[in-house]
Amino acid sequence: MSVASPTSSPGVVGSVFAGTDVLAAAGLAALTGTPRPTFDQDVWDLSGLARAPATMGPHRKILDFTQIVNPRWRAVAREYLLARVAPHHLAVATLPGAFRMPLNPTSLWGELARLARWFDHLEQAGVASLAEVAQHHCDAYLQEVSWTTTGTRRRAAPVVVAAFVRSAQVLTLYSEILSDSYPPGFRPWGTRGAEEVAGYVRTNINLVRPVPDALLRPLLADTLYLVGTIGPHLSAEALRARDADSREAASRRGVRVGELPQLAAAIEGRRQAGVPAPRLAAAIVSRRLAAGWESQDPLLHVAWHSVVVGALGAMGHRRDLERLRPELERWVAECGIEERWCRDAASVARLDTAEPVAWALPADRNHLSVMVSTVTSACFYLTSALSGMRSSELLELTSGARQRDQRPGGTTRYRVTSRRIKGEPFGGVEDSWVVLEDVYHALGVAEALTGAGLGELLFTKSSNTAHERYTRMRTWINGPSGQRLGLIALPDGPVNPRALRRTLALSIAQRPHGLMAAKVHLKHVSVATTEGYAARPGGHQAAFLAEVSAAEHAEQARLTLAAYHDYRRGSLPSGKGARELLACFEAVDRALADHDAGPGTVIEDRRVERLLRAKAETLHVGVANYCWFSDPRKALCLKLAGTPDAAEPLIGMCDSARCPQATHHAEHRQAWADHATATKVAFLDNPRLSKPERARAQSVFDRATAVVAAIDLAATPEADSRGR
């Protein structure tokens, strides 16, 4: 990025920050030999910041104050921003209302943009000094920022509007050190806070929507296929391409006359081996035609330079091509011309039909780069979907961050090292994350595809948003290249690390019914996440596990409330634990009946949830039952395992047909019916089954059909025996 030469702004003589080194005042380190901006410069070049996170793109490191037309207000912006990043400066520390925590440098660019918007509004309103600002200027500004300025005109989100309002208000806290300030006692919008002005209401409810199943299913299937099946082949081809690029970059000389026989021999060797000549990119063909080449020239489309680089490590000129034209024309006539990369691709199984197909068709350098970008994005999204890492943490992943720990007993644990950025001081804190083997291999493929050196970033911020990354990957998958491999077409939608993190949290919390359970080993995700938290209670996975726990409690409450409403409608639970559950529901009925709701008051689900909270906390969801784990001494699974004092049930050992704490509900019927059908088809209908095996299978079948019958009987609405 080209940066305007730093110049001093007029009208700042006497500022408390005159001549101040910005980085030194903020206590920030800079890389050796990089710029060190001073307060008086109109452009602060922070590109040399040490430990800057990957989310702080290059444009965010250039603070261009010249976007503010009024020189006096440029000084105000510089004074305010320096005061925010250097709160311990003597002139700032004595201000009674100043912020005491330094502003993260990653926020400087956005804060400057909002100040510039405010000052531009005042400039257009004819205001020459902040001392002239009145409330009607603020009200007009509020209307302006309440609408988006890009794309279709629509209402801006309240949280965005609040940020604009806040930037205009906080200047009052620093009026004593600013070159220009509001009238004494004036504060934009008076005593009202920015959130109140913007109509923004904070909530502790996670409002991030999970990725819908219709999008998540093909995304997981496609990314697993691209990483596991295409990734290894593409990695080898990408390595060859990088080596060719290095040789071409090192080629600085022309072909010597004495080397022409060697070059002719190389051409002859390729002809005899039946290797097609490399095809030239269309853009260079156009330049050749413009330079006077004949459109019917048989060598027009031959990438001559790559031939010379590969044979001699020299540059190929047309004069050398003309000297060897007979050999080249013979080569082209017999072997033809073909794209240079992905030739003779090995066969792989299509994703949809498993039929063999070449993993790629011959491609030029640009198409190869697009393919590398697509599979690298697949690694990014697969890592995000199966780890729950934030975007800032994913972008901090480097080559060599993977760790594979072999444990006693033959078990293996996979970890990745990243930096925790959110909520940490500038630069973040190094931390590790326990992941699945799928994530470990995905990061390995990303290392091979990008050729990143040790410590170099794997997922560079090549796009402005995660949606742009997804759009490019989706375009390739939905195009001819992806459809040739049998990939599932991807719909458009909200695919980003935040949504994938929320999806994973809900999938773990709502197991075993989450979609993730059908695509990957959800139990392993849960174990890895829990183990990562146990190893580092304050690390990456602590916050994620807290989100999972909150979602799990919400799911327990929802399922318990749904069971209660089924009971109210006359659809009862079955199983040996049904009597105890019904007793709990009847106690809730009595509590509600004793409550004097008052005239016109409707009993809401929230009050019922409070009454059912204790019961909901005992719920553990099985594949085909609910386990109300209120008394470990009654748990059949713990008795079978010989661990009567365990804190949680062993769902994998659950025999819900015999456990006194298990219940079956209408949503479990299909699982039991499928189990009965599978047992009959696989065993009872097999004439070769031995008598002991048939007896065991018959017992399993009878138990499954009995559970189905009990569910059907209990789910049938009864007579109004409870007065409803």
Structural write-up:
This protein has 724 residues and is mostly helical. The protein has three domains: 22-198, no CATH class; 358-543, no CATH class; 547-593 and 604-715, no CATH class. 48% of the residues lie in helices and 6% in strands. It has 27 helices and twelve strands. Strands 7-8-9 form a three-stranded antiparallel β-sheet. The protein has a three-stranded antiparallel β-sheet with strand order 10-11-12, with no helix packed on it. It is flat, with a radius of gyration of 34 Å. Mean pLDDT is 87; it is low at 1-11, 513-524, 529-536, 598-603 and 719-724.
Question: What is the fold's blueprint, element by element?
Answer:
Elements: H1 22-26, E1 43-45, E2 62-64, H2 71-85, H3 90-93, H4 108-124, H5 135-145, H6 158-169, H7 194-198, H8 213-250, H9 260-273, E3 277-278, H10 282-290, H11 304-312, H12 318-323, H13 325-335, E4 337-338, E5 347-349, E6 356-358, H14 365-387, H15 391-394, E7 402-406, E8 412-420, E9 429-435, H16 437-450, H17 466-478, H18 480-484, H19 497-509, H20 516-519, H21 522-535, H22 540-568, H23 578-594, H24 605-616, E10 619-621, E11 626-628, H25 636-641, E12 662-663, H26 669-684, H27 691-715
Parallel strand pairs: 3-4
Antiparallel strand pairs: 1-2, 5-6, 7-8, 8-9, 10-11, 11-12
Helix pairs in contact: 4-6, 8-14, 8-16, 9-11, 9-13, 14-16, 14-17, 14-19, 19-22, 21-22, 22-24, 23-24, 26-27
